[in-house]
From TrEMBL:
<protein>
    <recommendedName>
        <fullName>2-oxoglutarate dehydrogenase E1 component</fullName>
        <ecNumber>1.2.4.2</ecNumber>
    </recommendedName>
</protein>
<dbReference type="GO" id="GO:0045252">
    <property type="term" value="C:oxoglutarate dehydrogenase complex"/>
</dbReference>
<dbReference type="GO" id="GO:0030976">
    <property type="term" value="F:thiamine pyrophosphate binding"/>
</dbReference>
<dbReference type="InterPro" id="IPR011603">
    <property type="entry name" value="2oxoglutarate_DH_E1"/>
</dbReference>
<dbReference type="InterPro" id="IPR042179">
    <property type="entry name" value="KGD_C_sf"/>
</dbReference>
<dbReference type="InterPro" id="IPR001017">
    <property type="entry name" value="DH_E1"/>
</dbReference>
<dbReference type="Pfam" id="PF02779">
    <property type="entry name" value="Transket_pyr"/>
</dbReference>
<comment type="function">
    <text>E1 component of the 2-oxoglutarate dehydrogenase (OGDH) complex which catalyzes the decarboxylation of 2-oxoglutarate, the first step in the conversion of 2-oxoglutarate to succinyl-CoA and CO(2).</text>
</comment>
<dbReference type="InterPro" id="IPR005475">
    <property type="entry name" value="Transketolase-like_Pyr-bd"/>
</dbReference>
<feature type="domain" description="Transketolase-like pyrimidine-binding">
    <location>
        <begin position="591"/>
        <end position="788"/>
    </location>
</feature>
<dbReference type="InterPro" id="IPR032106">
    <property type="entry name" value="2-oxogl_dehyd_N"/>
</dbReference>
<dbReference type="Pfam" id="PF00676">
    <property type="entry name" value="E1_dh"/>
</dbReference>
<dbReference type="InterPro" id="IPR029061">
    <property type="entry name" value="THDP-binding"/>
</dbReference>
<dbReference type="Pfam" id="PF16078">
    <property type="entry name" value="2-oxogl_dehyd_N"/>
</dbReference>
<dbReference type="Pfam" id="PF16870">
    <property type="entry name" value="OxoGdeHyase_C"/>
</dbReference>
<dbReference type="GO" id="GO:0005829">
    <property type="term" value="C:cytosol"/>
</dbReference>
<dbReference type="GO" id="GO:0004591">
    <property type="term" value="F:oxoglutarate dehydrogenase (succinyl-transferring) activity"/>
</dbReference>
Length: 942
């Protein structure tokens, strides 16, 4: 038994992965494995339970076969030499190859400053596998490599492995599950030993790009001393990488590129990549600004758009505007790319490419990175792969010790969650940087997956030009001070190769400075350049406010919304919803909220307006009111078990897309914002599961949605649906925090509305698309009102009129009213019910449906309708320090007449949005209603 184990043991246990890999190679090409292994695997095709004569069989029978043959007796006579020691060495060679493919990057020469010691990795040492110097000349089978030989001495193999995986380019890819992708990388790398072979002209072009990168930074440093610009010096190879990426993408058929990046090197990209006129940038340094923007922004936040010439024809570049929140631009870029792909009919992402540029510390530290990566392979958010470039200056802000900046080996390790390959490259070897860029783009175009280029470099200056990094990294900056610069090193390298003469590099630098003084472009031919990033609306929009739809069309739409395919089995509860909607469409019963919404969507897509609605439960909706997607009860959804009526409204309708998003707020909302600015003719809606879930995306709300227009001129029609209502469900399920949105309201930047019946949501959604108003829309949507029998509308209400900013009291006698209660949302129905219980003819109740822009003239007109009006009360569910009270006070007080009094009815100020006890909620609710109809507790005189 021991003899049997001795002859076969090297095939099992820790060596099983080797057998598995060898078998994969055999399936791909039987000639790629040795004759002994080929004979064994050929025999395996006839193993009982191994699917007969099929070539590509399940691996579990193969593995079981190994174990069974080992149990029955020796098999080395079939597959290996009788010399067991030699057999073990052959396996060890394969394990050594696998080790270099897996972790060879850990020994790569990546640090331009040469500060990092090479880690001890026994797996990469021949001695770890029992090899000695006497084994170096033994010839082994290497047919599963791409080094060009089926056999070679161990010495030669080791040299090839180290050149390929441990040079200035170190690559991580073996964690990829797909064998085809792994072999693609092995072939790409091993056939050239990870070494570029560029022409003389190519090398000169790389030097020219390095000269432009360095020359631009040094020019700014001397001309605009002390001004912030977030210099790229030390990471100059990044410009060579971007240049190669764009030119190669154009050659590959890419038509548009959207770029997202933070501050480091941004000005350099604007001039040396995007083609912005240097004189325009210099004027901004000297104080020039856009007169048409109320706020504007600093230079290193600005976006830009240009068309450049490439070998494949013109390519459109867009650099997204980005605030100081670093990586927050990532999902915005992905959304903008998705919209452009949809517009082009680019289903796989071949024509529109996203490029995201990161800092090392932000890439490992910002949560939005993970959230955005998690979108990459989903149906609703995938963009066919993103090329990520990390400008890895090894310091972050002031933390150069990785033990303080991350818990992973590399700052890029987070991308392993989506199996994205990473190319770590030494920034002082610009040819390797360009080679890495070529391979990254080729991989993205071939497999439509994310890929990362990690340019390890340094930061010559501080975080900004007013920072002194030597205070916190003294030894690091001593080395940086002694560094001659990447351009100089590369120029000397080309001189030594005889590619350029001794004066060529200096003359190139001198000429570039002259060009900057003259305001000449340093990029490839610039066809068009401009500061616009967004697309302009093209659909038929007008200023008319009428949003009604003819009654006959509403009935036709209702029929299509309730038409079920033959043989499609609905859930009984959904079947009842559909039956009720059919009756609503015939005018046999009032419309509920879901039907009002559906008719708005249906009329829009029938009229040529695409709709995209996403959220964590948007198909059904959190409170099961929408049911935009029907699910066949007899089929799973991946077996065509779904039906979406809104996609079947008319023959030539616009698209309707509804997506149940990943469990993310920040990345998903950023994506939808980016989509909205690139698709102005699409109604783009993000729906929070509960309104306060917007808290997780507050950065997007503050820095993009509410301020993007005044800072950057970005117009967006993004709509946010935020469920809001005090139902006794606790602090996290009550408030959409309307006060936060109202605090951000100024300069007509957004719309904040709280519709209270189905007709209102119908007209509001249609208004968002059919008028010229292109502003973000915040809708505080209800919860209990979704099924409240009082919160209904008639079909005729949708056939005429428009969204009503204020809904007056149609039942109160104007000549008798002495107190006016103004409110918004659900509390209106509580107030109406209380008034009916205690008949009070002197009280009128109105609803303010649009909180901002506040309809001041309409509100004043309502007050003027009541000649005996003495008291005005604002009533709200929310605590006094939240909701609308503090925002609306000055509007209401300015509309009041002399002698009128102003009061508040609602909850007391609270640190929490709502109480968590249902009994306490009921007490508070009764108290605020008592207060609304009782004596004032707080008065304000005009």
């Amino acid at each position: 038994m021991m003899q049997q184990y001795s002859s076969n043991s090297y095939l099992f246990g820790g060596n099983a992965p080797y057998i598995e890999d060898l078998y994969e190679a055999y399936l791909d090409n039987p000639a790629s494995v040795s004759e002994s292994w080929r004979a064994y695997f050929d025999a395996m095709q006839h193993v009982p339970g191994a699917n007969g004569d099929a070539r590509d069989i399940a691996h579990s029978p193969v593995q079981a076969s190994f174990a069974e043959r080992a149990r029955l007796g020796p098999i080395c006579r079939v597959i290996a030499s009788p010399d067991a020691e030699l057999g073990r060495k052959r396996v060890s060679v394969q394990k050594l190859i696998a080790a270099y493919r897996n972790i060879g990057s850990r020994w790569a020469n990546l640090d331009p400053l040469k500060r990092q010691e090479r880690p001890a990795l026994p797996d990469l040492e021949p001695s770890f596998y029992g090899f000695s110097d006497t084994d170096m000349d033994i010839v082994f089978n290497t047919s599963n490599t791409y080094f060009g030989k089926e056999t070679m001495p161990l010495r030669e193999l080791l040299q090839n492995l180290r050149e390929t995986y441990c040079g200035t380019l170190g690559i991580e890819f073996m964690y990829i599950t797909d064998q085809t992708e792994k072999r693609w990388w092995q072939a790409k790398l091993e056939t050239i030993r990870s070494k570029p072979d560029f022409s003389t002209e190519k090398k000169k072009h790389i030097l020219e790009r390095l000269t432009a990168a360095e020359g631009f930074e040094r020019y700014l440093h001397t001309r605009f001393i002390g001004q912030k610009r977030f210099s790229l010096e030390g990471g100059d190879s990044f410009i060579a990488s971007m240049d190669e990426l764009i030119q190669r993408a154009g050659k590959a058929g890419v038509q548009e590129i959207v770029i997202g990046m933070a501050h480091r090197g941004r000005l350099n990209v604007l001039v040396n990549i995007m083609g912005k006129n240097p004189l325009d940038l210099f004027a901004e340094f000297e104080g020039k600004h856009a007169d048409d923007l109320p706020s504007g922004d600093v230079k290193y936040h600005q976006g830009f758009t240009s068309d450049l010439a490439t070998p494949g024809g013109p390519i459109n570049l867009s650099l997204a505007f980005n605030p100081s929140h670093l990586e927050i631009v990532n999902p915005v870029v992905e959304g903008a790319v998705k919209a452009r792909q949809v517009r082009r009919g680019d289903r796989d992402g071949s024509q529109v490419l996203p490029i995201l540029v990161h800092g090392d510390a932000a890439f490992s530290g910002q949560g939005v990175i993970m959230e955005t990566l998690n979108l990459a392979l989903t149906r609703g958010y995938g963009t066919g792969g993103t090329v990520h470039i990390v400008i890895n200056n090894q310091i972050g802000f002031t933390t150069s010790d990785p033990r303080d900046s991350r818990s992973t080996t590399y700052c890029t390790d987070v991308v392993k969650m989506i199996e994205a390959p990473v190319l770590h490259v030494n920034g002082d070897d610009p040819e390797s940087v360009v080679l890495a860029t070529q391979m990254a783009l080729d991989y993205r175009q071939a497999f439509k997956r994310d890929v990362v280029i990690d340019i390890i470099c340094f930061r010559k200056l501080g975080h900004n030009e007013q920072d002194t990094p030597a205070m916190t990294q003294p030894l690091m900056y001593k080395k940086i001070a002694q560094h001659p610069g990447t351009r100089k090193l590369y120029a000397e390298r080309l001189e030594s190769q005889g590619v350029i003469g001794e004066a060529y590099g200096a003359e190139l630098s001198k000429q570039f400075r002259k060009d900057l003084d003259a305001g000449k472009y340093s990029t490839n031919p610039v066809l068009v350049n401009k500061t616009i990033f967004t697309a302009e609306p093209t659909a038929g929009r007008n200023e008319a406010s009428e949003t009604g739809v003819p009654l006959a069309e509403l009935k036709r739409l209702s029929e299509m919304l309730t038409k079920i395919p033959e043989g499609f089995k609905l859930h009984p509860l959904v079947e009842k919803v559909v039956t009720d909607r059919a009756r609503m469409g015939r005018g046999e019963q009032p419309l509920d909220w879901g039907m009002g919404e559906h008719l708005a969507f249906a009329s829009l897509v029938a009229g040529g307006y695409p709709i995209r609605i996403t959220g964590q439960d948007s198909g059904r909706a959190t409170f099961s009111h929408r049911h935009a997607v029907f699910h066949d009860q007899n089929r799973e959804k991946w077996d065509s078990g779904t039906y979406i009526p809104l996609q079947n409204i008319a023959d030539n309708q616009a698209t309707f897309t509804v997506i149940d998003s990943v469990l993310s707020e920040e990345a998903v909302l950023g994506f939808e914002y980016g989509y909205s600015i690139s698709a102005p003719d699409t109604l783009v809606i993000w729906e929070a599961q509960f309104g306060d879930f917007a808290n997780g995306a507050q950065v997007l709300i503050d820095q993009f949605i509410t301020s993007g227009e005044v800072k950057w001129g970005l117009a967006s029609g993004l709509t946010l649906m935020l469920p809001h209502g005090y139902e006794g469900q606790g602090p996290e399920h009550s408030s959409a925090r309307p006060e936060r949105f109202l605090q951000l309201c100024a300069e007509n930047n957004i719309q904040v509305c709280q519709p209270s019946n189905p007709a209102q949501i119908f007209h509001l959604l249609r208004r968002q698309m059919t008028t010229m108003r292109r502003k973000p829309l915040i809708i505080l949507t209800p919860k209990s009102l979704l099924r409240n029998k009082d919160a209904v509308s008639q079909l005729a209400d949708l056939s005429q009129g428009n969204f009503r900013n204020i809904i007056g009291d149609a039942t109160a006698a104007h000549e008798k009213v002495e107190r006016l209660i103004a409110c918004s949302g659900k509390v209106y129905y509580d107030l109406i019910n209380r008034r009916q219980e205690n008949t009070q003819e002197k009280v009128a109740i109105i609803r303010i449906e649009q909180l901002y822009p506040f309809p001041f003239d309409e509100f004043k007109g309502v007050l003027d309708h009541y000649p005996k009006l003495k008291e005005i009360v604002w009533c709200q569910d929310e605590p006094k320090n939240q909701g609308y009270w503090r925002f609306l006070q000055h509007y209401i007080m300015n509309a009041m007449s002399p002698g009128q009094q102003f009061g508040y009815a609602g909850r007391l100020a609270s640190a929490s949005t709502a109480c968590g006890y249902a009994a306490t909620h009921a007490i508070q609710q009764k108290a605020l209603l008592d207060q609304a109809f009782g004596e004032f507790s707080v008065f304000f005189n005009k």
